[in-house]
Design goal:
Bound molecules: zinc ion
Structural class: alpha/beta
Number of strands: 21
Number of domains: 2
Shape: globular
Helix content: 25-40%
Largest sheet: 8 strands, mixed
CATH architecture of the largest domain: Alpha-Beta Barrel
CATH class of the largest domain: Alpha Beta
Distance between the termini: 23 Å
CATH topology of the largest domain: TIM Barrel
CATH superfamily of the largest domain: Metal-dependent hydrolases
């Protein structure tokens, strides 16, 4: 199956072309054509009419959408999230679980294992908690917090593969937990943590290279104790997820992070909860009531931010507007860096030989089409 997208502007890391064309052969990008080159035959030709093609985005931290949450343990909910994420130009995501009981997590993994695969790809789970610091729970349910436990990770991994575990590195056994996760091929990431810089360094020495929702629920930068925020800024080789909705971090903090770290280790995430794609109102997050209004989701109890209602295409728009980066650079944070952080080699670029995961967006970052493995799975009209 050969699919041709003609007349699109291409914005891929380190590469831009106006009015080019992209040819997919099955699930692979087969060739990129510049203006003037004769167009090849294809089984399906789509005229992009000047829309911009970007690498399909990868959301490695997302709990839900359209009133569904992965931790509901409901297969229909997983299918609903998978199909609706396409509207954001997302082609791959890591379904992300909340700090919950072992039973609830097992049920969530089981539902993800039965995903119908019709929307975005979900190759593995991001296990957020339950191994977090009780003093930094944020909107995670404190009732289910526990110490790092590789046996629980193994049990869940047997149900469906885990790609990433977010945990507090300062907890007892934190550094050996990093070693154990890496041995299983799982990416360890610091989250919901009161770690001092020295505690981070202990885990860094074992291979920790990721920070979950950078700046949120982690030790802030102080000039005598730089904490995890300081660690992320200092170690430019550490990947930092960031919720770029301008609420979880101010525009100036987003600008600072991109400026100091450079674009190569910044990863856009939504951290979206079930109210993403839904009207304002009251929702549930892991058993905690949440009020959603004006683009913010907050716990009813204390008004703490409780995940986001952000969409990836909006995150990308925000970053372009805030940092002034050209789109062809900003898209690194939307796809390629996430792929690198997880060890994927051929995802995140519009380049010959890469996986045919592509989104077509307009000048307002509205997604018109999303292609997963070369197949058009979403169309705005
Ligand atoms: Zn979190």
């Amino acid at each position: 199956m050969r699919t041709l997208i003609r007349d699109c502007n291409i914005a891929s890391p380190g590469f831009e072309v106006k009015h080019g064309s992209i040819l997919f052969k099955d699930n692979i990008i087969y060739s990129i054509l510049t203006p003037g080159e004769s167009l090849p035959d294809a089984d399906l030709t789509i005229n992009a009419n000047g829309l911009t093609a970007i690498p399909g985005m990868i959301d490695i931290h997302c709990h839900g959408r359209n009133n569904c949450d992965f931790t509901d343990g409901d297969v229909e909910g997983v299918n609903t999230i998978g199909i609706n994420k396409l509207k954001e130009g997302v082609t791959m995501m890591l379904p992300t679980t909340l700090t919950q009981s072992e039973e609830a997590l097992s049920a969530a993994f089981d539902s993800i294992a039965h995903y119908n695969g019709k929307g975005v790809k979900m190759p593995g789970v991001h296990l957020e908690g339950p191994f977090i610091n009780p003093s930094e729970v944020g909107a995670q349910n404190p009732s289910f917090v526990r110490m790092p436990d590789i046996n629980l990770v193994q049990k869940l991994n047997d149900i469906y593969p885990i790609h990433k575990v977010s945990f507090a590195p300062e907890l007892p056994g934190g550094d050996s937990f990093v070693t154990d996760l890496l041995a299983m091929g799982i990416v360890p990431s610091a989250a919901h943590s009161a770690a001092k810089y020295a505690e981070f360094k202990r885990c860094y020495a074992k291979g920790l290279r990721n920070l979950t929702h950078f700046c949120n629920q982690m030790t802030p930068l102080h000039h005598r104790e730089i904490g995890l925020v300081g660690a992320g800024l200092l170690h430019t080789n550490v990947f930092a997820e960031m919720i770029c909705d301008t609420l979880h971090s101010s525009p100036n903090m987003i600008k600072l992070a991109f400026k100091v770290k450079g674009v190569d280790h910044m990863i856009l995430i939504t951290d979206a909860m079930r109210a993403a794609g839904m009207p304002d109102g009251e929702y549930d997050l892991g058993g905690l009531p949440v009020m959603v209004s004006g683009g913010a989701a907050r716990l009813r109890e204390n008004a703490a931010l409780a995940g986001s209602v952000l969409r990836m295409n909006v995150a990308l728009k925000n970053v372009v507007e805030i940092t002034g980066l050209p789109l062809s650079e900003a898209v690194r944070a939307g796809a390629l860096n996430a792929a690198h952080s997880l060890g994927y080699k051929n995802i995140g670029r519009i380049e010959t030989g890469f996986t045919a995961d592509v989104a077509l967006i307009d000048d307002n970052f509205i997604v018109h089409n999303t292609f997963v493995d070369g197949e058009m799975r979403y169309s705005l009209d």
